[in-house]
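Thread: "does anyone have the structure for this chain?"

Original post by V.I.:
We have the sequence but no experimental structure in hand. Need at least a predicted one for the grant figures.
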Amino acid sequence: MIGYRVKSLREEKKMSISELSTKSGVAKSYISSLERNLQTNPTISVLEKISRILCIKVDALLYDQSDKGMDEEWIEIMQDVMGSGISKEEMREFIEVRKCTAR
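Reply from O.Q.:
Generated one for you, tokens below.
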């Protein structure tokens, strides 16, 4: 499963195996074997190198986490919200009202 997560996160970032290899310092053949689940027991050191380049926590490779963090668009939206002067309480109230009207 780790290999599947590496591959899907790498592809999400539109990165080739060669690019991930060069940036992380992990051999291209090793990453390929990992992604094809031929290599199923990578060291923490390898996972740290790969996760650093993919901008994720090692946990995201080890465990199936549907929440990989916010994508760039959500980050931008949240920065706009924070810059608009809306308080946390007002935002929570908006979310609650939205939940009620969505039903």
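V.I.: this helps a lot. Helices lie at 2-12, 17-24, 28-35, 44-54, 58-62, 72-83, 88-102.
O.Q.: and The chain is about 70% helix and 0% strand.
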